[in-house]
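## retry 2 of 3
previous attempt timed out at serialization; input unchanged, resubmitting
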Amino acid sequence: MDGGRILRDWRVRVVAADSTARSFCSVTCARRFVERSGDVPREVIVTEATHGREIDARDAWLVRTVASRDRYAPDRFRVFASRDAAERHAAAHGGAVEPGSEAFDRDRLPPGSPAR
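## retry succeeded, writing output
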């Protein structure tokens, strides 16, 4: 969204209803795009932190970590394929765990977002 480099380990893909896909550098950038677009995505694919696999955001667990960002981490969200892995990360580094199914849910976008 900001023209930044998209690293494979952090990539998020948002697929629109017409099957058009856009790639983003992070969960935060993808969420902002969804909030501003006014469209509800057909699918969101996130890259999980443990093995670097792409998974459906509805099957993912996100940690808004308090671990500091470094030059490789575009934002504070870490993505995990299992709740256990997310909870372990949150326990070790601090942060809050949330289901990926809620991350791009139209009803959970901030008030005033066009998609609401």
